[in-house]
Design brief:
The protein is of the alpha+beta class. The protein contains 16 helices and 17 strands. Helix 12 packs antiparallel against helix 13 and helix 12 crosses helix 16.
Length: 548
């Protein structure tokens, strides 16, 4: 039976009652559940801390800072370490110095300040999810410039607080520096390419890549195509095969070029090409084999026509100097017997005039004729000496008439011997030219000699050579030499002024005379034109006139 104490406990609702014991078990279960929840909370907090730490590390790596701006306080109420670090400060210093929008704006470089403030003034009108941003530069306390990208979003706040904004900022300085370095590198590369192309253009050098497997060009430069007179795309379309490309080689050099192409030893060659307009040009070609890709070769091509012309001019000049020295020597030697003949003839005339010699009148007339011819011969030898003198002096003004008269006087005896009639249209007015009279006489002498040869070689019954001067304007004069020869072959008209090109038989012409003449006239600012006429051929020299 229960004791009195037990009865008292039952009556007082003691924990020892069944109901009390049941409540204790439930309480323990609740406590266990709370312990588990607390453990889960600790785990969640730990995970949150890990995530937050990872995010902070990621933000640090990405130079991504953030802050919370309170519009009522007009200052940041929170600044991350990265945010402060971006601006070259710690958090405390940042919060102390950046006490207002105006204080922060002073960090922004002056050129970017207006754009920054305009962005800030627009933020209050933007939605909480606006993706707009602004890029600007700030100058941090150590004087360095930082490139920043900022995005601001409205934060939800309790009543009476705010508005507040989340500011996310990324430091783009390294990226912008890399971009600037890349831009400068690209600019330097572009400048280098431009300089190389300019150098190639000045030097008349083009390049191409030849593919041996496809037997075609993989690539050609603009300069390469330009040497042949074509645009880049035109050239690749028109000369896609070796057979088509071979058409560009002058027929006289095609076999030699084929041998060169098939050779495994020869890497360079000089040959002639036929441009689109029919002009013949001299080129130098060099192959560079690609060791990493044996199926292709890098080819360079240089237009050396001007160099060949210069070399030809030097050769011709050397010949002319030698010829001039010989002419001067011959003139000197001829003058000795001419002087003796003249003295003897003059002595006979004087003796007859004094009555000391009985000389018939018809003999005296012959003696006078001898003296005239001696004088004429002396004049010719004097002209030979002048012609043989090298023109080393600077350019000067001279009368075109003097140059024409000197050449006519020099060549007229030879033309008469060849039974060729010479016609010279007299110059009514003085026409002054700038250059070297001797060199222009060399040009005219060459033209007259060529005309003489053409008339003798295949001329008509009427042997005529004419020299004419026409002035169609105040600035230009045209000096032309025409003949009644067989004319210039049509295929040679465009090549007649090329070095080493001649229509004469082997051993007769060198192909340098007209080329040198063309260079002389070109140096005087003029031009030369070759054409056929109804009677034969005509070569004209166009020269600028010195205005009085």
């Amino acid at each position: 039976m229960p004791t009195n104490e037990e009865k008292a406990d039952e009556n007082n609702g003691s924990p020892q009652s069944p109901h009390a014991r049941k409540s204790a078990r439930e309480l323990i279960a609740i406590i266990d559940q709370q312990d588990r929840q607390l453990s889960n909370l600790h785990t969640h907090i730990h995970k949150t801390n890990v995530i937050r730490s990872s995010l902070e590390q990621a933000a640090d790596i990405a130079d991504l800072g953030h802050a919370i701006w309170d519009d009522q306080l007009d200052r940041d109420i929170y600044v991350s370490d990265v945010m402060a670090k971006i601006h070259g400060m710690d958090v405390a210093t940042y919060l102390e110095k950046i006490s207002s929008l105006e204080a922060y704006a002073l960090l922004v470089v002056e050129e970017d300040r207006e754009a920054y403030l305009a962005y800030e003034s627009q933020v209050e009108h933007q939605s909480a999810h606006s993706d707009s941003f602004v890029e600007y530069r700030v100058r941090i306390p150590n004087g360095q410039i930082r490139h920043l990208k900022q995005q601001t979003r409205l934060l939800p706040t309790e009543e009476g607080i705010g508005p507040q904004y989340l500011i996310v900022m990324q430091d783009l300085t390294k990226a912008r520096q890399a971009e600037e370095g890349l831009r400068k590198g690209q600019e330097a590369l572009s400048n280098s390419v431009a300089l190389l192309r300019l150098s190639a253009k000045i030097a008349n050098i083009g390049h191409a890549i030849w593919n041996y497997d496809l037997n075609t060009y993989s690539e050609v430069s603009e300069e390469w195509a330009g040497i042949f007179g074509y645009e880049q795309s035109e050239f690749l379309n028109k000369f896609a095969t070796f057979e088509a490309d071979l058409e560009l080689v002058d027929p006289a050099d095609r076999q030699r070029y084929l041998d060169y192409y098939n050779s495994e030893e020869d890497l360079d060659i000089e040959y002639k090409i036929v441009r689109r307009d029919g002009e013949i040009r001299h080129v130098y070609q060099l192959y560079h084999y690609d060791g990493a890709n044996p199926s292709q070769a890098f080819v360079t091509l240089q237009d050396i026509t001007e160099r060949k012309r210069t070399e030809a001019n030097l050769i011709q000049s050397s010949k002319m100097i030698t010829l001039g020295e010989m002419a001067a020597g011959m003139a000197h030697e001829l003058n000795q017997p001419l002087n003796a003949i003249n003295i003897a003839a003059e002595n006979i005339s004087q003796q007859a005039a004094r009555g000391r010699a009985d000389v018939p009148d018809h003999i005296l007339k012959k003696i006078d004729r001898i003296k005239e011819q001696v004088f004429r011969a002396s004049s010719i030898t004097d002209q030979m000496r002048i012609f043989g003198r090298e023109a080393k002096e600077k350019s000067y003004a001279f009368d075109l008439k003097d140059a024409v008269n000197n050449v006519v006087e020099l060549m007229e005896p030879q033309l008469k011997l060849d039974e060729i009639k010479i016609s010279v249209e007299p110059l009514a007015n003085q026409i002054m030219i700038w250059g070297h009279q001797i060199r222009l006489e060399q040009v005219l002498l060459n033209l007259v000699a060529n005309a003489n040869f053409a008339i003798k070689s295949g001329g008509k019954i009427q042997k005529m050579l004419s020299i004419a001067v026409s002035q169609e304007s105040e600035s230009w004069v045209t000096l032309s030499v025409s003949d009644t020869g067989a004319g210039i072959p049509e295929g040679a008209l465009k090549r007649i002024f090329e070095p080493f090109y001649t229509t004469k038989d082997v051993g007769v012409g060198t192909g340098l005379g007209l080329s040198v003449s063309f260079g002389i006239v070109h140096d005087m600012g003029g031009n030369m034109i070759a054409e056929n006429t109804a009677q034969g051929a005509r070569i004209s020299v166009e020269l600028p006139i010195i205005k009085a």
